[in-house]
């Protein structure tokens, strides 16, 4: 069965179903403090500023987390509201919605294993918050998102100011804001309320509902973003903007898919090609920062793991937690095991080194293969897919150029810098990595201590996070027009 037929039925949410503010035929926006007349001066000036907003030179989104911090999960710090407060959200390129845990949430966690104090967003405490209602009932617009690992979020929509670090010079940023519609999460399930939970999740998918699309449609940014996940010190670089250095080869994004899909041509282990996808057929591969491990169909994974372990014939591996193939090893992984290279259309290649496809388990000297069979998922839709998550995307610069519908991939030192071009002035500015969000001086406010560095991923934590969105429902007691987006 065609993968796309199966997999993609996300519902378009925000921009289709309602139009913000005055004159927007479909949905009326009500201010939480009452009528238009009650609008504060501040609110008005913000409104004007937004209306005259110009293209931002680039947006630097500080990120933390990652293998080094023991989470296998990358998160960003984002300011919301007026006065603004900081929220720590999972960064996910496999889904579109942006939501945070909301004040009415009864079961939301208050602290996470990452040592981050969690908070609940309160629209009533933000002068700039607006509730979003749907016609004809004028009830709040509700949303629901279900992720590939079965976790979900339900709530209602709000719009508020979201604060960014706008790139303003070499290694310099200034604060900028934009009005963004997002979900106020009332009930979350699965990993989203576990000990690995954070304040919410920001989806960097391409649909019109994502924050990126909202920023782009307000003319603030071009639809180009990039990440470089630092496997050594955690965090890395996550930016919206035009990367000019390093330069990269690019591979086409498959059109009309709801994830970032590219075509894999072959897989090479050392000098041997082990999987050659027939010309023109190509193997669809999803690039997904919200998933920790990599998933391959059994027909590819089996020969791949045989080739990997063939170089260490005497190694005895054991199945740990019924899930991971693990072994004890006290020598250099990179000396002992081969590099695996994924070749994509247009000669773009992704070299994955042993220290990135194995991860350290929580006892010393124990490593496990970070690759799994796609058939592990309940979703039949992914059984034939390759999904590349954080582990293999670590220490790579991944550029998503949606303007030109291409994806760039290259090795990069994610503790170093990249250069962004300001589309308006033509200036080129360096942007540096962030590693420890609690110590970065962005968005004001008291420091929140971060977790002590741990070098190992731990099972039962986010190792299994799989945040591709498969079903993004939007139900609004059927008052709100909603559209199901089928990609065929
Ligand atoms: C993708 O969608 C657009 C707009 O709906 C359509 O014009 C285009 O032909 C589609 N492309 C493919 C390859 O299906
Ligand atoms: C594997 O074990 C055999 C027998 O103990 C030994 O002769 C051989 O050198 C070992 N191979 C490696 C790669 O360690
Ligand atoms: C990566 O960049 C950082 C910062 O510039 C530098 O200290 C480090 O040595 C670099 N690492 C490698 C492997 O080149
Ligand atoms: C992050 O920075 C804070 C404050 O500067 C410090 O206490 C903490 O140990 C740092 N954490 C890591 C993982 O480096």
TrEMBL record:
| Protein name as it appears in the record | Peptidase A1 domain-containing protein
Family named by the database record:
Belongs to the peptidase A1 family.
Any signal peptide, and if so, which residues? Answer: 1-21
Query: Mind telling me which residue stretches traverse the membrane in this protein?
Result: 465-487
Q: Name one GO molecular function term.
A: aspartic-type endopeptidase activity
Among Pfam families, the record links this protein to:
TAXi_C (PF14541), TAXi_N (PF14543)
Q: Which PROSITE patterns match?
A: PEPTIDASE_A1 (PS51767)
- Catalytic residues, chain numbering: 92, 288
Instruction: Name the InterPro entries for this protein.
Output: Aspartic_peptidase_A1, Pepsin-like_plant, PEPTIDASE_A1, Peptidase_aspartic_dom_sf, TAXi_C, TAXi_N
PANTHER family with a match to the protein in the record: ASPARTYL PROTEASES, EUKARYOTIC ASPARTYL PROTEASE FAMILY PROTEIN
Organism, by scientific name, is Papaver nudicaule
User: Keywords, A to Z?
Assistant: Aspartyl protease, Glycoprotein, Hydrolase, Membrane, Protease, Signal, Transmembrane, Transmembrane helix
| GO terms (BP aspect) | proteolysis
Q: Domain named Peptidase A1: which ranges? A: 74-410
């Amino acid at each position: 069965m065609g993968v796309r037929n199966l997999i993609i039925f996300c519902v378009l949410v925000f921009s289709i179903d309602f139009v913000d503010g005055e004159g927007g035929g479909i949905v009326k926006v009500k201010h939480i403090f009452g009528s238009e007349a009650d609008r504060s001066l501040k609110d008005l000036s913000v409104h004007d500023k937004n209306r005259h907003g110009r293209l931002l030179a680039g947006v630097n989104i500080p990120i933390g987390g990652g293998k080094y911090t023991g989470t296998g999960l990358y998160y960003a710090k984002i300011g919301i509201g007026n006065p603004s407060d900081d929220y720590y959200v999972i960064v996910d390129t496999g889904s579109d919605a942006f939501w945070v845990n909301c004040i009415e949430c009864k079961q939301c966690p208050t602290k996470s294993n990452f040592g981050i104090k969690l908070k609940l967003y309160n629209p009533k405490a933000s002068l700039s918050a607006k509730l979003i209602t749907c016609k004809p009932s004028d009830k709040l617009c509700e949303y629901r998102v279900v992720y590939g690992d079965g976790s979900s979020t339900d709530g209602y929509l709000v719009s508020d100011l979201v604060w960014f670090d706008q790139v303003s010079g070499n290694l310099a940023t200034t604060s900028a804001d934009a009005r963004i519609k997002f979900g106020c999460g009332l009930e979350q399930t699965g990993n989203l309320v576990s000990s690995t939970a954070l304040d919410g999740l920001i989806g960097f998918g391409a649909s019109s509902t994502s924050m990126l699309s909202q920023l782009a449609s307000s003319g603030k940014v071009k639809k180009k973003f990039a990440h470089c996940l630092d496997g050594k010190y955690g965090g890395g670089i996550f930016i919206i903007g035009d990367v000019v250095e390093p330069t990269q080869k690019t591979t086409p994004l498959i059109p009309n898919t709801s994830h970032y899909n590219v075509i894999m041509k072959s897989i090479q282990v050392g000098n041997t090609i082990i999987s050659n996808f027939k010309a023109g057929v190509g193997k669809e591969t999803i690039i997904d920062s919200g998933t920790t491990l990599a998933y391959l169909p059994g027909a590819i994974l089996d020969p791949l793991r045989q080739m990997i372990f063939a170089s260490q014939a005497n190694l005895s591996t054991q199945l740990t937690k019924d899930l991971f193939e693990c072994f004890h090893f006290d020598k250099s992984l990179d000396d002992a095991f081969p590099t695996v290279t994924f070749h994509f259309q247009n000669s773009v290649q992704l070299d994955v080194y042993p220290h990135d496809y194995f991860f350290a388990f929580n006892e010393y000297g124990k490593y496990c293969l970070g690759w799994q069979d796609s058939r592990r998922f309940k979703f039949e839709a992914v059984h034939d897919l390759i999904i590349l998550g954080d582990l293999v995307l670590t220490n790579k610069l991944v550029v998503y150029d949606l303007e030109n519908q291409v994806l760039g991939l290259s090795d990069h030192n994610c503790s170093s810098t990249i250069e962004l071009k300001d589309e308006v002035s033509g200036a080129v500015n360096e942007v540096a990595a962030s590693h420890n969000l609690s110590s970065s001086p962005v968005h004001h406010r008291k420091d929140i201590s971060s977790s002590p560095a741990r070098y190992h991923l731990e099972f039962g934590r986010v190792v299994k996070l799989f945040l591709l969105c498969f079903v993004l429902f939007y139900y609004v007691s059927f008052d709100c027009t909603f559209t199901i987006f089928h990609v065929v």
